[in-house]
Design a protein that fits this description.
By secondary structure, the chain is of the alpha/beta class. Helix content is 38%, strand content 15%.
């Protein structure tokens, strides 16, 4: 779970806790709640009376050594997401809170989870990754040097908590392993695969297929977006059948050199971008792993969020693959 605390200013016990926290040496106090309330009251149409009367909250962010005063959860959500209207209507936005979304792999997955959170597209996020943030991740993960050596799920959860402290975020810093599979997967509406391990990809899909959970995956080279509707197709081959009969056990502990041709089968070598295609033989030789760009990862976050939004709106796509290749579109720019 996230590390922040939500304290209700209308409760005596919470008010006492706020006073104690505020008295700690170096505690930073941020209170822009009056401006927030004025913005809330100025919305069109005017929010319901019970939303305007909602008690404000103090949020304690221990990693920031800060207390921040905010509108209550309903007012906060109403004001924060007001500019979504009417691309997402109020009733649609409310329905989004029923969605529970899991993200496995918090490099590209960090961008995915944050974009889903920023649009208010779910009511619960579950994040799984065993890895810690490395300096080499900062070419594509929107974190900072203050986050180095911290588990990636914690880094993402903290960033989301600073965006929306009321959104439920559950972290699995052990990653998606057998002992945590049920806890992570049960009750999800969508699971998003952004992990590197091929055996983990198959394990995830086996668990999702058995539960009827659709799987989304974005692969940054050429903007590959995959949708597997196990909710509609309970016998659908994993990964569109691109790995044939290979199972998760046969892929455990393979080397990067062995992984490269299998990854190419998933991505279709004939459609890889020229620079990625040229990079594949160099993996394990002159390259530690495959290259990824921050702009591609940001696009992946937007692409997956758009599919999650479609599920929330009741217009989800079928199983299949799309390529949202910005380089192709940019190369086709013409003067008008």
């Amino acid at each position: 779970m996230s590390e922040h605390r939500i304290l209700n200013s209308a409760l005596e016990s919470d008010s006492t806790t706020v006073e104690e926290l505020a008295g700690l040496p170096g505690m930073r106090i941020l209170d822009a709640s009056q401006n927030q309330f004025e913005s809330l009251t100025g919305l069109l149409p005017s929010p319901p009376v019970d939303v305007l009367a909602e008690p404000q909250r103090w949020i304690h962010y221990p990693w920031r050594h800060s207390l921040v005063k905010l509108l209550g959860p309903r007012g906060f959500r109403t004001l924060r997401l007001d500019r979504n209207r009417n691309k997402i209507t109020l009733s649609e936005q409310e329905r989004m809170t029923e969605l529970r979304v899991g993200v496995v792999g918090l490099s590209v997955g960090h961008a995915v989870a944050h974009t889903i959170a920023i649009e208010g597209l779910c009511g619960e996020l579950r994040l799984a990754d065993f890895d810690v943030l490395d300096l080499s991740n900062l070419n594509r993960v929107p974190a900072s040097v203050f986050d180095l050596d911290i588990n990636k799920t914690t880094v993402a959860a903290r960033r989301i908590a600073e965006l929306d402290p009321y959104l439920k975020v559950v972290t699995h810093p052990e990653g998606l392993i057998a002992s945590s599979m049920d806890t992570f997967m049960d009750g999800l509406d969508i699971v998003i695969d952004e992990c590197d391990s091929l055996d983990a990809k198959l394990n995830l899909r086996e668990a999702a297929r058995s539960r009827g959970i659709p799987v989304l995956m974005e692969t940054s080279d050429g903007g590959i977006l995959d949708v597997e509707r196990f909710d509609l197709e309970p016998t659908r081959p994993l990964l569109h059948g691109l790995l044939g009969d290979l199972d998760a056990r046969s892929l455990a502990d393979i080397t990067p050199e062995q992984k490269a041709p299998l990854a190419a089968r998933i991505l279709d070598p004939t459609k890889l971008t020229p620079r990625m295609l040229a990079s594949l033989p160099e993996i394990g030789v002159s390259l530690s792993t495959w290259p990824q760009l921050g702009s591609d990862v940001a696009l992946g976050g937007a692409s997956v969020a758009a599919v999650v939004r479609a599920f929330g709106l009741g217009t989800p796509p079928p199983s299949g693959r799309a390529r949202i290749n910005l380089e192709t579109h940019i190369s086709a720019i013409v003067d008008f």
